[in-house]
Amino acid sequence: MSKVSIIIPVYNTGKHLRKCLDSVTNQTVKDIEIIVINDGSTDNSESIINEYTKKENSLIKYYSKPNEGVAKTRNYGIEKANSDYVLFVDSDDYIDEKLIEKLMPYINEDIDIIKFKLKRVDEKGNAIENVDGPTFEKTTGSEAFNKLYSQDVLIDSPCVYLIKRKLFTDNDFQFKRTYHEDYGLIPLIILKAQSFVSVPEYLYYYVQAEDSITRNENYDKTIKKFNDAIFHFDNAMCQIDKMDLNKETKENAKIFYTNAIILKINELKEEDKSKYIKLLKDRKVYKNIKPRNLKQLLKRIILQLSVKLYLKMR
């Protein structure tokens, strides 16, 4: 059995796919399997995958299926994986060729989740931004969540974590076919982990396309994204209440999901905001945070001010 399954969902990314596949097939550690899933691509992605499959048939497992979206494709990859760990790589991004080698000491220590860092680059590979965050030695998942939360670290992308496969299978965790599926799931996985490390290595390269900043989004999609955020909020609240967490961690987790949903409402048009205020009021999205000390009281005050600012509560 391989140590790591690298899961790559592919949908119409022929422009970047070779760089992605080069970065995974050229890993300096070969105790891996590369699971490439063509999610109904209509460009030249399939021919590129076939080219690499012929060259690297001992490493690459190739699957093709109708288009279902990245969430179901990741779930499909987890089902096909035969390894201790899973690593998710988007097919228009790429990874450091020494990623597995650099993480191997922690793999050998049997750490549940190993976090590394991300570098934003342009389509030519030029650095745009190093996405920073805290680094720390072995701790529990709940303590790791608190450390990441306290420094406002983005913790929703699965691509910067090497995750024990059993965290998915033992807890029946699956990505949902919705917007914000990462925000909905990854924090819950972290909270379930028995062990967690965060390393100071920039090992994932997120390719920012030239039109990604200026592209316009269909407003119906914005509404759908907000409704999906509410769905994940409701699910997370139920899951968090069932977890064996200390009060501070449970509180931080609820604040994390609460802040995320409050901020999303600001993307709506004025006439639509009022329709969703009642939904959030009914869920008492900020009243469930009970301060236990000065630090928590300040968080509560900031949260209430955020509610009034973004939801314009009267």
Keyword list:
314 residues; alpha/beta; Spore Coat Polysaccharide Biosynthesis Protein SpsA, Chain A; 2 domains; 11 helices; 10 strands
H/I helix tally: 11
CATH hierarchy class name of the largest domain: Alpha Beta
Query: Which structural category fits the helices and strands?
Result: alpha/beta
Shape: globular
Biggest pleated sheet: 10 strands, mixed
Span between termini:
59 Å
Q: Low-confidence segments, ≥5 residues, pLDDT <50?
A: none
CATH fourth-tier homologous superfamily of the largest domain:
Spore Coat Polysaccharide Biosynthesis Protein SpsA, Chain A
Q: For this entry, what is the oligomeric state of its chains?
A: single chain
Task: Give me the strand/helix succession.
Answer: EHEHEHEEHEEEHEHHEHHHH
Work out the number of β strands. Answer: 10
CATH architecture of the largest domain: Alpha-Beta Complex
Mean pLDDT, to the nearest integer, reads 87
- Output the CATH topology of the largest domain: Spore Coat Polysaccharide Biosynthesis Protein SpsA, Chain A
Can you give a write-up of this model?
The protein is of the alpha/beta class. Helix content is 47%, strand content 21%. It has helices at residues 14-25, 45-55, 70-80, 99-108, 141-150, 165-171, 181-192, 219-242, 247-265, 270-282, 294-311, and strands at residues 2-10, 32-39, 60-65, 83-88, 94-95, 113-121, 127-131, 136-139, 161-164, 196-207. Strands 1, 2, 3, 4, 5, 6, 7, 8, 9 and 10 form a 10-stranded mixed β-sheet that branches. Helix 8 (219-242) runs antiparallel to helix 9. The longest helix is centred in the C-terminal third of the chain and has 24 residues, at 219-242.
